[in-house]
Structure formats: structure tokens, C-alpha cells
Specification:
By secondary structure, the chain is an alpha+beta fold. It folds into five domains: 78 residues, 2-Layer Sandwich (Alpha-Beta Plaits), CATH 3.30.70.100; 257 residues, no CATH class; 87 residues, Calcium-transporting ATPase, cytoplasmic transduction domain A; 131 residues, Rossmann fold; 119 residues, Calcium-transporting ATPase, cytoplasmic domain N, CATH 3.40.1110.10. The strands form five sheets. It has a seven-stranded mixed beta sheet, with helices on both faces. Strands 7-6-8-14-9-12 form a six-stranded antiparallel beta sheet, with no helix packed on it. It is elongated, with a radius of gyration of 34 Å.
């Protein structure tokens, strides 16, 4: 299955970026090996492995290297790169089969290890046939249940690399070989006055514990990817379409743009489309988070994954497959879950050298015991070396960050917060200043004309009103659209201007029959030297004090009228701003509107700091000014005029109902236009980073404490020597505990 496919141009080379599933990874060192091998391949620009997600994202030049070569490179070191176009069900089935095989091997190893443990721990010298019985039970554990460790270690060794398989293979392999030698030739040690110890119980129990840990870990990692599975499950597999006036059912993959799709009550919408017949209510909570269904009639848009209620609908497919809004959301979540947080870079470097360091420590442990204790301590030396190799597995280290990121990103997606990458998620924890655009962010973004005040001397109101309507019809600004809708509903028809220009942050200018006209804010009229009468200024001031936006209209000599547009404040705005303040965040409102309107809106929602009459460049400059004061800035917006500030902010947040430009720039997209979600995103970031720190602390603490103990540091003082079986259990428990701690994010109180 190929999850992501996009083209990036770097200098003169075109790099294709794809994400491939990888099977066979067992630890962070595996991920490091895959990354380094792929990066060393000619034509590969970058490779990033997500150990928890079992994927690798590769940026490569298609004219220099093919996916088949990438697959071969990865397969050579003992892993499998999946490049075939597989549907998600097949991949999930493959993963379930692998989990079932792991479960089977774990059960067999556990059942066979039990008698070996009993014989080795309680009856090791009781029966003359005891060693042979333990050899009989242990051999299938080594050759079948634990075979993956030995084959994996051999493939790594051929490339002078080492990973968790190396540690397990060396520890259990040495113990098994030593025990086998003493079973076949016990006289070698008895003739020298030494006991021919065997460690079959350690080999059997270590493999059983490690397999059990891997099984529990894989099950837990599957839960951490539940958000993706939930999103993928929103799309039906079979669709009813009407072709050539005949109704038929076809697989979802066969639906094409332009097909006429039939929806019955209770059906999930399979594509993004436009209703052409019928009337119904559609439940869109997966997009908007709102529980109430939305009425859909001919001309309305519907989106894949939403649920049709009681009525029947016919719609024309506009976007299918990977082009739908649902597919876009899934790609965003997958990419974010597979991305690396900045802290992961340090962890990757440590994991890359960790296993070789452990091998050196294990060898030094063996040498130290033999040098300081002599041949009499051969048994203790062997036990200590095996314990070091077993207990030092870097699995917990490799799982610490990606599992938390996967759960955090998935939790956000389930609640309407789409996080573009792990860096945005990690950085949001530091936000202490949030900048809010007014229109569409604090207000509903659905302005309507409320008042029209003409200058007393104007006599041709009807003609001038049509010219004003014609000018605003050319603009894409939300206020202009409100004016356009208002007059269109009144039956006016737009006239094509002789010339037209949009003046960013000010208004518009147009000419009709050789006469120039202006429409915009007070700043535009004063900048152009157009006279503003006291009558219109007083009217505009009164309207602005009611939180209404005043738009002046006039010719080159004087203002002729003032129009008032009101954009109601969102019902959730005040609560969302209060939530941000309670989270210790300073809130600013930035708007291109006039000062009086800005002041009225700010007072209504409880904002103390606001800036009015701001151009897009002014918003960007304000972001820079706060950053120079040492603040970590989040910019929240929904329009093209916010894109520059969004790009400069430390964390950029786009409202999901906003423009594609704003959503493309943003690191976080809110599917609901609800400011409570901004505070929730910051809380989610803090909870996720806190979980990462906890995971890393315990992963590092575990190794720092356990490796010296396993080496026998306490033996001279207390006589305590760590049993390799306990070391195996501790190693398995460390990985499971890290994943379990990450899964706690699912119930964290951030929403």
C-alpha cells in the first residue's frame, strides 16, 4: 500500500515522496538501519522510519531509483518493504495474520518453557535425564518460536549492523550452545573441578517473555492506530449509481467523477458531490463536530464519510477516491503520525549507537568477571553477560516518541483537530500568545447587510446602488460577498465595469462609462482625498459602535453613502477565548476592520488586546514583533489575507471552513470553526509532550539502572546476581509500559 504520493522539486532534480509499510522491525535500531541503508542508496534524498507506525517515508528521484530497488535494499537487511498497490483491507489482514502467528509462537514457547523452568529451577540435579529433557523442550523454542531473532541477527551481521535481534540471538544462542556442550560433554568441566551448568531454562523463558512482550506491544500499537482505522471505516465499499438510466451497485473504486450516485436512508456518502435531486438531512459530525444533521437540497454539497438520514438523495460525484475531503483528512493524519518530532532526532542518534555499545559492555562484563574471579566464576560471568544482552533492548527507547505522537494525532483527528506534522504538535505546547483574525474566526464569517445611509443630496440611488453592487460582485472579500448576496436576492443584475482593481486591506476601485467610483473603508477615502461629510461620518460611527462594519461608497469627489454589514459573533467565541486565558495564553485580535467595530467585538468576547485597520503585511509584522519579545505565537485565521501571518507564526491554525490557501499553510486545521478547539489543541500538545518526556525518562532510566545491575555491580556487596529470565521479563515489560503510557492519552482531559 502506498499511503502518500507527492512531487517535490529540489534544485534541478524532481523527487517523489512516498510512504511504504515495512514489516519485520523489532526495535529502534531496526529503524535506524533501514534509514541509513536507504539514505545510502543512490537517488534517495531522505528516508524517515516510523517504528510505531511500521512505515518509512522516502523522497527519491524516480529517474535514478525505482521502488523495486528500495524494496531489495530493505529486504537485504532482513525487513520487508511493501511496494505493491494494496488496498487497506489486504494490509490489515496481513497484519492480523502476522499477529496471529506471533501469538501462536508465544503460546508454544510458553507451554514448552514451563517444564524447562520447573526442571531447571527445582530439579536440576535430581534426575540424570533432566538435562536431556530440557534440551528436548528448548530446541523447538530456539529453532521455531525464536527463529526470527537468529535470522534477523544474521542478516544484520552480513552488513556489519546490529539490532535487538542481535542482542537476543547472542544472549540465548551463547547460553544454548554452552548448555548443549555441557549436556554432550559434561566431563570437560568435571575433570577441572567445575560444575557443568546448563541454562536451558534461561533460554526458554527469555524467548517466551520477549515474544509475549512483542505480542502485547503489537496489540497496543494496533490500538494507537485506531483513529486511522476509524476514519477509513467511514467510506462504504459498495455504491449505488445510475448509469444509462439503470441502477447498479459497483465497488467504490469504480465510481468516477460525473457519476450519478443514489443515497438511501442510512447510507454513508461515498464521494464528495453535489445534490441534484431529493431532500434529506445529512449528519456531518465527522467534519463539523456538530451533532445536528444539516438539510441538503439540490445545489448543496455533501462529503464522503457523512451519513444520510431519512430522505433519499441523488448526487453527482465531484471528487472520488483519494481526492475527497475524507481522503485528504486520512492522508493528513497518516503523514502526521509518521512524521518525527524534533526530540526524536536525538533519540534516533542514541538508538543508532546503542546496540554496539551494549555489545561492548557485555564483552567487558565477561572479561571483568574472568579477570577478577578466574575460572571459578565462569558461570557468573556467562550469566552476567547474558543478562546485559537481554535487558538492554532499545525497544522502549524507540517506542517512546512515535507511540505518543500516533495517539496524540489520532485523538486530535477524532475530535476535529487535524495536525499536519509532529513538529507542529510538539511546538504548540510552548504557545503563550494567540492571534485571532476577526472575520470567520471570532465572528461567524457570514456577514449580512443591515443598514444603508445615503448622503442627503443623492438623487440617483437606484443607479448608484447597481454600480456599488457591480463593484462588490468582482471582489472575493467576505463583506463584499455579503453585499453581493443581499442585492442579488433583491433582483439586481451586475454590470461589467470598464476597469476594476482590488486595493488590499482598503477596498475596491472601478470605472463605469468613464466615471471612477470607490468602495471601501474610511482609510481608503482619506488616502484618496475623497470628501467625507459629517452626516456620513456620524452615521458610520453609530453603526460601528454596534459592532457593524461600515463600507463607504462614492465617486472621486465625495462619499455618497455608507453601508453597514454585520457579522454576528460566534456563540462559542467568548468561551473559547476564556479557555485560552485559563491555559495561560495571551489573546490578541487582529482585523482589517475599523477601530470602533474592532473595539465593540473585542469587548463582547472579552479580549483586551486588539489591533484594527491592519493589512496582511501588518499582521505579519505583528507576529514578528511578538516573536522578538520572546513569545511563542500561534496565528488563527481562515482567509487568504491571513496566509502571510500564518506562515510566519510558530504555530499556524486554520479554521476548516476557511480557504484552501489558509489550510495549506497551517500546521493545525480545525474542522469545527470553534475557538474552544484552539485551547484543546494546545492542551493536547502539552499532554502529548508530557507523555513523550515520561516515556523517554523511563526508557533511559531503565537502561541506566538495569545494565550495571545486570553486569553484576551489586554482587561484591550483596551477593545479588540478576537472573537472565528476570532480565527478559523486565525488557518485555519496559516496552509494554511505554506503549501503555502513550495510550493513556486517549483518556486525557483536553476536550
Amino acid at each position: 500500500m502506498i499511503i502518500k504520493d507527492e512531487m517535490e522539486t529540489i534544485t534541478d532534480t524532481i523527487f517523489e515522496k512516498k510512504t511504504f509499510p515495512v514489516e519485520g522491525m523489532t526495535c529502534a535500531s531496526c529503524a535506524s538501519s533501514i534509514e541509513s541503508m536507504l539514505r545510502a542508496t543512490e537517488g534517495v534524498q531522505e528516508a524517515n522510519v516510523n517504528f510505531a507506525g511500521k512505515t518509512v517515508q522516502v523522497a527519491y528521484a524516480p529517474d535514478q531509483v525505482k521502488p523495486e530497488q528500495l524494496k531489495q535494499t530493505v529486504n537485504e537487511i532482513g525487513f520487508e518493504l511493501l511496494i505493491e498497490q494494496q488496498i487497506d483491507d489486504e494490509l490489515e489482514q496481513r497484519q492480523e495474520e502476522a499477529l496471529a502467528r506471533l501469538k501462536q509462537k508465544t503460546i508454544v514457547a510458553g507451554v514448552l518453557a514451563l517444564p524447562v523452568f520447573v526442571l531447571g529451577m527445582f530439579f536440576h540435579n535430581t534426575f540424570s535425564w533432566g538435562n536431556w529433557a530440557m534440551l528436548l523442550f528448548t530446541t523447538p523454542i530456539v529453532l521455531w518460536s525464536g527463529r526470527q531473532f537468529y535470522t534477523g541477527a544474521w542478516k544484520q551481521a552480513k552488513h556489519l549492523r546490529a539490532n535487538m535481534d542481535t542482542l537476543v540471538a547472542l544472549s540465548t544462542g551463547i547460553a544454548f550452545a554452552f548448555s548443549l556442550f555441557n549436556t554432550l560433554y559434561p566431563a570437560f568441566f568435571t575433570e577441572r573441578g567445575l560444575m557443568p551448568h546448563v541454562y536451558y531454562e534461561a533460554v526458554a523463558v527469555i524467548i517466551a517473555f520477549i515474544l509475549m512482550g512483542k505480542y502485547l506491544e503489537e496489540r497496543a500499537k494496533g490500538r494507537s492506530a485506531a483513529a486511522i482505522k476509524k476514519l477509513m471505516g467511514l467510506q462504504p465499499k459498495v455504491v449505488r449509481i445510475i448509469r444509462n438510466e439503470v441502477e447498479q451497485e459497483v465497488p467504490i473504486e469504480q465510481v468516477q467523477t460525473g457519476d450519478r450516485v443514489l443515497l438511501l436512508p442510512g447510507d454513508r456518502v461515498p464521494v464528495d458531490g453535489e445534490v441534484v435531486a431529493g431532500s434529506s438531512y445529512v449528519e456531518e459530525s465527522m467534519l463539523s463536530g456538530e451533532p445536528l444533521p444539516v438539510q441538503k437540497q439540490p445545489g448543496d454539497s455533501v462529503f464522503a464519510g457523512t451519513i444520510n438520514q431519512k430522505g433519499s438523495l441523488q448526487l453527482v460525484a465531484r471528487k472520488t477516491g483519494g481526492e475527497t475531503m475524507l481522503a485528504h483528512i486520512i492522508r493528513m493524519v497518516q503523514e502526521a503520525q509518521g512524521s518525527k518530532a524534533p526530540v526524536q532526532k536525538l533519540v534516533d542518534k542514541i538508538a543508532g549507537i546503542f546496540v554496539p555499545v551494549v555489545l561492548v559492555i557485555a564483552l567487558l562484563t565477561l572479561v571483568a568477571w574472568l579477570v577478577l574471579g578466574g575460572q571459578a566464576y565462569l558461570s557468573e560471568a556467562l550469566v552476567s553477560m547474558i543478562s546485559v544482552l537481554v535487558i538492554a533492548c532499545p525497544c522502549a527507547l524507540g517506542l517512546a516518541t512515535p507511540t505518543a505522537i500516533m495517539v496524540g494525532v489520532g485523538r486530535g483527528a477524532e475530535n476535529g483537530i487535524l495536525i499536519k506534522d509532529a513538529e507542529s504538535l510538539e511546538r504548540a505546547q510552548h504557545v503563550n500568545a494567540v492571534l485571532l483574525d476577526k472575520t470567520g474566526t471570532i465572528t461567524a464569517g457570514k456577514p449580512a447587510v443591515t443598514d444603508v445611509v445615503w448622503s442627503g443630496h443623492v438623487t440617483e440611488q437606484a443607479r448608484l446602488e447597481q454600480l456599488f453592487f457591480s463593484m462588490e460582485a468582482q471582489s472575493e472579500h467576505p463583506v463584499a460577498q455579503a453585499i453581493y448576496v443581499h442585492y442579488k436576492e433583491l433582483g439586481l443584475k451586475a454590470q461589467q465595469p470598464d476597469s476594476f482593481s482590488s486595493l488590499t486591506g482598503l477596498g475596491v476601485e472601478a470605472s463605469f462609462d468613464g466615471q471612477q467610483y470607490l468602495a471601501g473603508n474610511e482609510k481608503l477615502f482619506r488616502q484618496e482625498g475623497v470628501a467625507l461629510s459629517e452626516e456620513l461620518l456620524k452615521a458610520a460611527t453609530a453603526l460601528q459602535q454596534q459592532a457593524r462594519t461600515a463600507i463607504y461608497f462614492g465617486d472621486r469627489q465625495q462619499a455618497l453613502a455608507v453601508f453597514a454589514v454585520s457579522d454576528p459573533v460566534k456563540t462559542s467565541a467568548a468561551a473559547g477565548i476564556a479557555a485560552l486565558k485559563n491555559a495561560g495564553v495571551e489573546v490578541f485580535m487582529l482585523t482589517g476592520d475599523n477601530r470602533q467595530t474592532a473595539e465593540a467585538v473585542a469587548k463582547q468576547v472579552g479580549i483586551e488586546h486588539y489591533r484594527a485597520e491592519m493589512l496582511p503585511t501588518d499582521k505579519a509584522d505583528f507576529v514578528k514583533a511578538l516573536q522578538q519579545q520572546g513569545k511563542t505565537v500561534a496565528m488563527v485565521g481562515d482567509g487568504i489575507n491571513d496566509a502571510q501571518a500564518l506562515a510566519l507564526a510558530d504555530v499556524s491554525v486554520a479554521m476548516g471552513q476557511g480557504t484552501d490557501v489558509a489550510m495549506d499553510v497551517a500546521g493545525i486545521t480545525l474542522m469545527r470553526s470553534d475557538l474552544n478547539q484552539v485551547a484543546a489543541a494546545i492542551k493536547l500538545s502539552r499532554a502529548t509532550v508530557r507523555t513523550i518526556r515520561q516515556n523517554l525518562f523511563w526508557a533511559f532510566f531503565y537502561n541506566v539502572i538495569c545494565i550495571p545491575v545486570a553486569a553484576g555491580l551489586l554482587f561484591p556487596f550483596t551477593g545479588f546476581l540478576l537472573n537472565p529470565m528476570i532480565a527478559g521479563a523486565a525488557m518485555a515489560l519496559s516496552s509494554v509500559s511505554v506503549v501503555a503510557n502513550s495510550l493513556r492519552l486517549k483518556s486525557a482531559k483536553v476536550f
